[in-house]
């Protein structure tokens, strides 16, 4: 038997087949994700600047990390990012729950409403950013035009020029973009919910709030955590939104971790430092995903115990 | 409160929510068809006086008013890059998804987790090393460079979806075919693939949309008409001295139309895909 057929037989033997089938996927991830990430880990230990290529081979240990951890701007951006995500995701959950409950009560046209609800999901983050840059424009934006036409104010409110207002406008854009995920999942949860426990609660004399708090809500939580897990996978999409709406300005007042990375890496060309920050952002993303995933598992176990 | 008032309040609430959801997008799309003077007018003109295709003519360079932004080239790049990366991601996804759905093997869970974890890496964080490496390989500002990135970006999600679709098909079907003398490949190609086809198509649409909409990586790995995609091109307008809002809205319309149509086609799968994990437990 020739070597070739031997290899061929090995490749198509039952044990090897799954690995062969997965090989293209593994190779792609190796080239585009894993190897670059190892390279950027190395780069984060060098003072690499794009303008001076030879600095790539100088090893400085943890100096970049020391520098960013003592950098006030970094901590402000980091804190702002975590706070922003915490607020935005909680509000998305609350609004999504509200919308799901509203639509659940409606008996006519539910399907159409659900389709409309998916409208924001069709918009790419970059479009959402552009759209709200347009709407919150102080001069010609829909927001100020509406306020002025209604006679509420005759000022041009500087939505994207004032730091606090700009952060609010960005949060509005984020919430507009992602509330649908929560609404759709929670609505699916409401549809799938068995009616018996609700009836039993009514028989036992629970009022509407008690029924909601102790039966509906626990049943919906796994759905909410799925939404949060999905959402935590793409929190970094906020980069696209902020980059178009304010570019991190005014004077760094809307700078999130991701825009700071881009500014450090591309505008200041300090790739070493930017890669160190990038690693912090990767850990943040993994932490968010892991946090919601464990919540999801716990909620499911709780549900399993209740049934 | 009577149930009549409750229902009315419920409808009012729903109406307001739907208005907030649809209004911003409709306003942008509408503005794409309005002359710039009307958009800039003070006090605001609420009811459009005149609808026009001039903005579209301008960005495609067929009107009297020419603009400096090569939207046609960006459009072509977007189509080529999104289509190619989708096709490759689908083939790789079918192969990988089938492996996860039908085989037991060592490191299965580790591999699956690893694939999914690769999705959590923020685009901007990944763009830094890719920028350095692609520059050395000469892949910066090439369609190939971006296609490669998008395939890897899409593979985990397509594998996850396609794995789910294959799981829904009973194993016994293919086994019966094998008993009847089909090879494993024939059993897959004649029995399992046709059954999973619509699911695979929807996975393809998701992949296409991801590539079509991606910005963080594209904005840093492309530079010129060689490979710049539409989302990156949209920010060309911002860099200009005066913002051409009408042109931007027209371009936004061009980006949103394929996304709108495709999402509409897969909405059933989208909802099923989203809720899959929840119902199955």
UniProtKB/TrEMBL annotation, chain B:
UniProt KW keywords: Cell membrane, Membrane, Sugar transport, Transmembrane, Transmembrane helix, Transport
Record flagged with keyword Transferase: no
Name of this chain's protein: Maltose/maltodextrin transport system permease protein MalG
Keyword Cell membrane: yes
Ranges that cross the membrane: 12-33, 79-100, 112-137, 143-162, 245-266
Top-level division of the source organism's lineage: Bacteria
Cited Pfam families: BPD_transp_1
Organism: Maritalea myrionectae
Domain ABC transmembrane type-1: 75-266
Classification via Gene3D superfamilies: MetI-like
InterPro entries xrefs: BP-dep_ABC_trans_perm (IPR050901), MetI-like (IPR000515), MetI-like_sf (IPR035906)
Gene Ontology terms: cellular component: plasma membrane
Function statement: Part of the ABC transporter complex MalEFGK involved in maltose/maltodextrin import. Probably responsible for the translocation of the substrate across the membrane.
GO biological processes: transmembrane transport
């Amino acid at each position: 038997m020739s070597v070739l057929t031997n290899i061929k037989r090995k490749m198509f033997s039952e044990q090897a087949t799954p690995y062969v089938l997965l090989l293209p996927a593994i190779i792609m991830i190796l080239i585009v994700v894993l190897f670059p990430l190892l390279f950027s880990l190395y780069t984060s230990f060098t003072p690499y600047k794009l303008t001076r290529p030879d600095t790539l081979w100088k090893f400085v240990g943890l100096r970049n990390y020391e520098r960013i951890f003592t950098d006030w701007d970094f901590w402000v951006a980091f804190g702002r990012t975590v706070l922003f995500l915490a607020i935005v995701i909680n509000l998305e959950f609350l609004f999504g729950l509200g919308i799901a409950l509203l639509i659940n009560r409606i008996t006519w046209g539910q399907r159409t409403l659900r389709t409309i609800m998916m409208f924001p999901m069709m918009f790419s983050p970059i479009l959402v950013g552009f759209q709200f840059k347009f709407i919150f424009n102080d001069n010609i934006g829909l927001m100020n035009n509406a306020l002025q036409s209604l006679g509420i104010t005759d000022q041009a409110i500087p939505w994207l020029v004032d730091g606090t207002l700009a952060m609010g406008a960005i949060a509005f854009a984020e919430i507009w973009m992602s509330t649908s995920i929560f609404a759709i999942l929670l609505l699916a949860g409401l549809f799938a919910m068995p009616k018996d426990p609700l009836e039993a609660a009514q028989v036992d004399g629970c009022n509407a709030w008690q029924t909601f708090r102790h039966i509906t809500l626990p049943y919906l939580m796994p759905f909410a955590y799925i939404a949060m897990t999905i959402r935590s996978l793409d929190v970094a999409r906020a980069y696209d939104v902020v980059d178009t709406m304010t570019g991190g300005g005014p004077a760094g007042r809307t700078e999130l971790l991701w825009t700071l990375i881009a500014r450090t890496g591309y505008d200041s060309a300090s790739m070493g430092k930017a890669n160190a920050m990038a690693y912090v952002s990767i850990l943040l993303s993994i932490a968010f995903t892991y946090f919601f995933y464990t919540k999801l598992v716990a909620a499911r176990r709780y549900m399993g115990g209740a049934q | 409160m009577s149930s009549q008032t409750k229902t009315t309040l419920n409808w009012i609430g729903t109406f307001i929510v739907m208005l907030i959801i649809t209004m911003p997008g409709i306003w942008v799309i509408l503005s794409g068809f309005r002359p710039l003077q009307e958009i800039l007018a003070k006090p605001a003109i609420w009811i459009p006086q005149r609808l026009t295709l001039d903005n579209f003519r301008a960005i495609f360079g067929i009107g009297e008013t020419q603009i400096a932004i090569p939207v046609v080239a960006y459009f072509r790049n977007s189509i080529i890059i999104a289509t190619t990366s989708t096709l490759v991601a689908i083939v790789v996804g079918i192969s990988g998804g089938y492996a996860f759905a039908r085989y037991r093997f060592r490191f299965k869970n580790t591999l699956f987790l690893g694939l999914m974890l690769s999705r959590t890496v923020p685009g901007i964080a990944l763009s830094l090393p890719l920028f350095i490496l692609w520059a050395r390989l000469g892949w910066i500002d090439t369609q190939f460079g971006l296609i490669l990135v998008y395939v890897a970006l899409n593979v985990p999600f397509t594998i996850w979806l396609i794995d789910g679709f294959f799981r829904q098909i009973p194993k016994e079907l293919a086994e019966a075919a094998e008993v009847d003398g089909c090879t494993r490949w024939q059993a897959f190609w004649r029995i399992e693939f046709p059954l999973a086809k619509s699911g695979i198509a929807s996975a393809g649409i998701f992949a296409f949309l991801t590539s079509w909409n991606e910005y963080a990586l594209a904005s840093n790995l492309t530079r010129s008409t060689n490979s710049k995609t539409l989302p990156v091109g949209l920010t060309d307008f911002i860099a200009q001295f005066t913002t051409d809002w009408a042109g931007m809205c027209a371009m936004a319309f061009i980006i949103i139309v394929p996304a709108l149509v495709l999402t509409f086609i897969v909405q059933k799968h989208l909802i099923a895909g989203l809720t899959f994990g929840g119902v199955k437990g």
